[in-house]
User: Fold this.
Amino acid sequence: MLERPPLSLYIHIPWCVRKCPYCDFNSHESESPLPEAQYIDALLEDFSQEFGRLDTDQIELQSIFIGGGTPSLFGGASYKKLLQRINESLAFATDIEVTLEANPGTAEAGRFTDFREAGINRLSLGIQSFDDARLQQLGRIHNADEALKAIELAKNAGFANFNLDLMHGLPDQTAKDALNDLQIAMECNPSHVSWYQLTIEPNTVFYRRPPELPHENILEEIQISGQKLLESQDYHQYEVSAYAKPGNKSLHNQNYWSFGDYMGIGAGAHGKITLPDESKILRTRKIKQPNHYLTALNGRNGELKEILTQERPLEFLMNALRLRRGFSKKQFESRTGLPFGEIAKRVESQVENGLMQMEEVDDELLISTTATGYRFLNSVLEEFL
Ligand code: SF4
Assistant:
């Protein structure tokens, strides 16, 4: 039976100082000055609407992620107001994780302290590389020194729990260069590292004028040796690009990938909401253009779509199999509202092929990919199409 899963909140801030040539996020070069107060008010209206959709107040928020764009362009006072007002309607779990994405180029000494004061307890810093030449190629507004300084500022402001975003497979990058970036990152002692490969996405400058990327053999070498290096320093992979020290997996990431619910507010934000009484799972998306979002008169929904019963198994698996630990039979049933029998035969055939595994732990049936299956995740998923 369909049950209401844990609830998170995603808040999108759609502006950046400059658009990076590889970026396909809903981010726009900032107008000056930003309509900060007006946008916070719009977010609060948007939240009220999403909260109404939930149809219950008997639930608490387990995580909030303020992403972008560059959320660190806004000040701590704005987030304090936003979080306090949200908390008047919706209870926060006692161990709620509240993350804010910050860019080193927008890190100012006082700002991180204000973020902490506002109730933000985790920072995610968009470092990408510690090599100045590569940062320039990526169109970043910061250099390596500023990145290191931003990390220091975050620590001094009391953020023991912080993530560093790093990219690999950058133009002309060798395995040695990529490992060097990782090594510097780990010397900064973050609790979490998001380490992901540069991909060329449509609608980006890199798509129109592609840079020369490393050969596949080098990419593979980077992947294999980088993972070894991370593991050797106690950063354990729990999702395709996410590595955490013990006890520091991101609650927000895990809720996304285990097909949990999240309200999405802000320009272009996506959400997923389960309505057990109506046996429905909805996907929501907000108006994308910041100016249209700000001035909308009749709500800010861009799209509202139901995940149909027949679509649920694949949607669930596309998320849950990104997690190394996979999922439990019970989780599949409560989050899709379908019996495990819907996918059992195909799981069994993948087990025979050595791509998936099932084990009984404490009376729970756990299903995950094997190491080979995890490497060829898309092929595994194709079996469930
Ligand atoms: S800072 Fe981040 S969100 Fe902004 S343009 Fe660059 S990659 Fe995109």
In short: DSSP finds 15 helices and 17 strands in the chain.
